[in-house]
Design a protein that fits this description.
Alpha-Beta Plaits; five-stranded antiparallel β-sheet; alpha+beta; three-stranded antiparallel β-sheet; 3 domains; SH3 type barrels
Length: 337
């Protein structure tokens, strides 16, 4: 109960209005479906009795149109209500495996599309059209394909292939066509991923050409720390190696032991040392920050000199003669920032 209260308080005014409106619409839709289902037995009038008939030819007039409007609303509420209820139920389970969560997400997406398609067919049937004959008509099927069903079918097949081939699952961190993020939903036609800033990118399943799944294996976290050229490199390397176990104990997100890789570069004013460890991709940036912190504290506690940035300046002495420009440029002393 406290979680619901906290969630309610964290919602914006617009979100609260949308939530209340959605609940009211749900209640009205359920009430309408119940009333219309019981109406033929309660009211014996012709209008109510004929409102739910399917594929019945139209005769024209208000007495024929009005029941069909009631029936259309009834079937839309019934089909979409069932589809949304299934969608909600399929998204409720918590603590399940990533593969199960992915399968449930796909089924939820399928339920939405199935509810929409069935409601359209029933509404067409309410208005006197033989929906079965319409569905199997070669001309209509060709028209649907011509209007873009080929792309839809490609998305559906690609979505099924993603799930059954386990290319990636809900919760995996992936790079899809240079877009980095966490998979939040794998639908029947689209996949949604969220980047580190919370931006949601929706990608058609058939447009996913290259995928790098960063959650399949531990990722590599790297830290580079510099020392002064005047430092005793063997002494510093020994300090690092002797404290790797302590660094591991202070960073529980590490997978396995950290490793000192050696000198990675000889920079302008420092010697760069590189240390690496493995971790889950979701923890990689946090582990790199923690590794930098541990190395800095280790060097400070052991008196290892970490160089500051150095800038070299030169200036032209205005008192020098122009005939001898080479002697006019005198290097200034190094200044440290």
């Amino acid at each position: 109960m406290s979680n619901l209260k906290e969630k309610w308080l964290s919602m914006s005014k617009r979100q609260k209005v949308n939530l209340i409106s959605g609940i009211v619409l749900w209640i009205l839709a359920v009430a309408y479906v119940v009333v219309m289902s019981l109406a033929p037995t309660i009211w014996k009038g012709k209008l109510i009795a004929t409102s739910l008939r399917l594929s019945f030819p139209m005769t024209g007039g208000f007495d024929d149109v009005w029941p069909r409007i009631l029936g259309s609303i009834y079937y839309i509420c019934l089909c979409m209500g069932i589809a949304n209820a299934l969608n909600l139920i399929l998204r409720l389970p918590k603590g399940v495996s990533s593969k199960t969560k992915t399968t449930l997400s796909l089924l939820a997406s399928f339920a939405r599309y199935a509810g929409l398609i069935v409601s359209i067919l029933l509404v067409i049937a309410v208005w006197g059209v033989n929906s079965t004959a319409l569905l199997v008509s070669a001309g209509i099927i060709a028209l649907i394909i011509g209007l873009g069903a080929q792309s839809l079918i490609s998305d559906i097949i690609a979505g099924l292939n993603i799930v059954f081939e386990s290319e990636f699952k809900v919760g995996d961190i992936v790079v899809i066509d240079d877009y980095y993020g966490t998979v939040t939903e794998i639908g029947l036609t689209t996949t949604k991923i969220v980047d580190l800033s919370g931006n949601v990118k929706t990608i058609n399943n058939s447009h996913i050409t290259t995928v790098v799944n960063l959650s399949e294996n531990p990722s590599l976290a790297l830290a580079v720390i510099t020392i002064d050229y005047n430092e005793n490199l063997p002494r510093v390397e020994e300090i690092i190696r002797n404290n790797l176990n302590e660094i591991k104990a202070n960073i529980p997100q590490m997978v396995g032991e950290p490793e000192y890789l050696g000198v990675s570069a000889l920079s302008a004013s420092s010697v760069d040392l590189k240390i690496a460890c493995h971790c889950d991709e979701k923890d990689r940036f946090a582990v790199e920050r923690a590794l930098n912190r541990e190395l800095y504290l280790l060097f400070v506690n052991n008196g290892v000199d970490i160089p500051f940035n150095q800038i070299s300046l030169s200036y032209r002495d205005p008192s020098e003669k122009r005939e001898n420009p080479k002697s006019a440029a005198k290097p200034a002393q190094n200044s440290e920032n």
